[in-house]
Design a protein that fits this description.
This protein is mainly beta. It is built from 1 helix and 3 strands, in the order βββα. It has one domain.
């Protein structure tokens, strides 16, 4: 699931909403990098690339009540 696939943005999910993060793989098993698209459901969405030992991860930040974020958490 891509964060951009979520429904319309909630009117109360703005830049000052509480945020949470999830770390996702930066590439698939074959080494092909994933495309990163902004979340259409929350304004505070942003991403950063981090290194955890030998792993490179994408850390996505979403509003905690963002539907896309909640789906990512349950998929993990």
């Amino acid at each position: 699931m891509s964060a951009g696939d979520a429904g319309p943005r909630k009117p109360n999910t703005n830049y000052t909403a509480p945020v949470g993060s999830i770390d996702l793989a930066a590439e698939d098993e074959d080494g092909t990098p994933y495309a990163i698209w902004p979340c259409a459901s929350c304004l505070p969405w942003h991403a950063e690339v981090i290194r955890d030992g030998d792993d490179v991860l994408v850390r996505e930040w979403h509003a905690v009540d963002c539907e896309a974020f909640q789906e990512l958490l349950t998929d993990d």
